[in-house]
């Protein structure tokens, strides 16, 4: 039996051999077999002897092949070191190592192309359990020459007692049995560029033998013209990058098809009309309604239909989206769908270009009079290796910038810092007739006829995402289905968290925290704890903008490094709330910057931390960020930062009398209900007990609500947010008072007050059971403890 051509020692060996197309040999002349192996003589001992055997033993009179072509296949299948040398070279990272093989590859590939294609079931194997690699529906391109057998009995003995069998339904296999040194092996070669995809679930036989059923597939977009292996390689790279990394654990990643939910994309004109409603809202209820208009249900545009609003032949779309909304994931999703043949097959090439990579380090200045071209950009950004001379010629032959769809990600990340010698290249990109450009809403000076905005998940997306998140971690988490359902109910009953959950990055953080057993066991999952973790993560991302390594920074380190930025946001939020405005005018921004002694020059990205959004007032277009109106991406972020601002007053009330009076004056104002809930949660998290003591003194001392219902609602919400309730002054006495107040009102004929009480307690699940200890049966049956 021949040397092992049918089984790989590891999955990495199979992947390395199939990583890149075999290039360069096509331009070689067809030689005799003796001439074709001349450059291999120093590399393979006794190769001339192998050639002589092959020439003597092969089918010399085949109708389909010449003598040398027949001998080339025979040599490939001989039990010698020839095949292993070829296989090692195909796996090598040094692509120049393949050059001595070009003449032989030309000969054998010419022979294989002459053989008729057959449709049959074939077998191949890998040692060990590698079934998880093929557990999804991704298409893999096998670029190498892969040997398979139509006889399972040929492959299985190579696996031993533990391995993975691939059963492949081939549609373009080459049966070389007639020309093989071992015809009994019934060998079928899968040609370079064969695409395979898992067809069914993996079969597991006692955790020892695994069977993966693969289909050979053809893409819907496959051209009948001259094959361009370079473009096929690009598609394969988009397949391989079709995964999303978890933000809180980048080591975890999932297929983009499973993890990506279509984001809600609205036309910018429609979004601006809704923002105008927000700006003109007369009161808090109207403000909340406008927020729900922006972040709730909305008309979506399917990604594949994004060009339908383009009026002419050129397809140019500007897509806005604030930090964390999913712009880069959107770009990767588009690239993946194009590679799958699902979107925009009319484009020969899709080039995904992260614009932040246009730096002097990657593109040093050229000699005077020379500029980088779009072809240079493609070679640098799309290919992960240096092209050979023949590959370079092939790319130049097929590349057409006007037939390429350019996905340009991150206009805002380059516009202020583009090197002068790359301005010409950047202008070429913006002039391409077919492109999608993404940007955060600030720093935009471009006039596009079609402008859209990614605004986040729809309500339906949230439920889908939560389900998918916990399905993906079901092997790591007990009762993942129950936790998924619990979290969704939690989101639905907490309006503020429900609002920010429409932002993908926030929802992932919420899901991650909910799945963290340590987090849930050590502290109650309060709104304050969620927002505190979210802000810490946003700060970490903000600090990583200059590519600094921040993984080892503690929470205190992060807060210290972002001290100025956080102080600015706290000041801005408080003064906006105090002015009864959600739209933050330029004078408020400048006031906060001045009071906190923050310079835009020293902190150029301070308005771009992911919690503020800017927009121009109608009829006024300015590119100076501090001259634009802003608003927090959700009202709850403004409320959270307002509470952070007020915490400073609790730490030193003697120097913050204005803020103390604000707390006393507004504690029963329903507009500030969430502010006080956050304030309670933050005071319980503070290092010093003075914050908690001062806070509860202000809550429990005059001025007081005469009727008592506002006072009770305030206490319930504040207790609910306190992480360590035993530290609350008079905690037990407060619960007893609440229970008696409820019992008294339940026995009265007034139905309005009991209804408010029930609503308050339903928003405070952790208090219902505690209160039941102090109440009678009437209270327990009222619905307050449900």
From TrEMBL:
Assigned keywords, A-Z: Glycosyltransferase, NAD, NADP, Nucleotidyltransferase, Transferase
Classification via InterPro entries: ART, NACHT_NTPase, P-loop_NTPase
GO MF: NAD+-protein-arginine ADP-ribosyltransferase activity; nucleotidyltransferase activity
Record-linked Pfam families: ART, NACHT
Catalytic activity line of the entry: L-arginyl-[protein] + NAD(+) = N(omega)-(ADP-D-ribosyl)-L-arginyl-[protein] + nicotinamide + H(+)
Limits of the NACHT domain: 315-441
EC nos: 2.4.2.31
Domain of life: Eukaryota
PROSITE patterns, per database record: NACHT, TR_MART
Family from the record: Belongs to the Arg-specific ADP-ribosyltransferase family.
The protein's name in its UniProt record: NAD(P)(+)--arginine ADP-ribosyltransferase
Gene source species: Adineta steineri
